[in-house]
Write a structure and sequence with these properties.
Helices cover 28% and strands 34% of the residues. It is of the alpha+beta class. A six-stranded mixed beta sheet has the order 4-7-2-1-9-10, with helices on both faces. A three-stranded antiparallel beta sheet has the order 3-8-11. Strands 5-6 form a two-stranded antiparallel sheet. The two termini are 21 Å apart. The structure holds zinc ion.
Length: 194
């Protein structure tokens, strides 16, 4: 029996592993460029990615997006307005209830939400702030739900377009006992049907 973690790892690998490999190789050779992440093909401005895996009573959702889709810029916040937009994006990403509408009869409860934001302060050996020169940056978020009745989980609505109007397209990969399914969501078509 394949465990959800395995399925999920496979999905993640397909999406981000090439990037991680490139990153690791780069680091091995050039320590100076620790923060120049090599971005993979799935970093397309306007497009965000969602992975969904359901097994047993567990549902995992992984969201990954170019920062520009959520902020309107893709660098460290430089003005109070940008800082405010950044904080608000992090806050919104943590509010799974407002991002995903699940069928009430599935009785799903959010057990965990993790948001990974880019542009953390980087310091050199002397404690000075180092300018991380990145061309691109991603946000990612991970949500873990426990559902009493996953069989009633026949669909879910993704409401991210309302919160982040710069997202034009969300590519979805879903894995469940119905197999692997792909969806493309737009602001006028935001329903995943499983
Ligand atoms: Zn970018």
């Amino acid at each position: 029996m394949i465990k959800i973690r395995t399925l999920f790892a496979v999905l993640l690998a397909v999406m981000i592993y090439p990037g991680i490999v490139a990153y690791a190789q780069e680091n091995a050779h050039e320590h100076e460029q620790d923060h120049e992440t090599e971005y993979h093909e799935s970093h397309v401005h306007g497009t965000s990615e969602l992975l969904l895996a359901i097994e047993g009573h567990q549902m995992e959702i992984h969201f990954q997006s170019p920062a520009v889709n959520l902020l309107g810029f893709e660098h460290k916040p430089q003005s109070p307005t940008q800082q405010q937009r950044f904080s608000s994006a992090v806050k919104t990403l943590a509010q799974a209830d407002s991002l995903f509408s699940l069928p009430a009869e599935a009785e799903c409860e959010l057990e965990k939400a993790d948001v990974q934001a880019p542009f953390e302060d980087v310091h050199d050996d002397h404690g000075h702030e180092k300018q991380a020169e990145q061309e691109h940056a991603d946000f990612s978020a991970h949500y873990h739900y426990h559902c009493k009745h996953t069989s009633k989980l026949t669909g879910l609505n993704v409401n991210m377009f309302e919160h982040f109007p710069l997202i034009e397209l969300i590519r979805v990969q879903a894995l469940s006992d119905k197999g692997q399914q792909s969806f493309e969501l737009h602001s006028d078509h935001r329903q995943i049907e499983m």
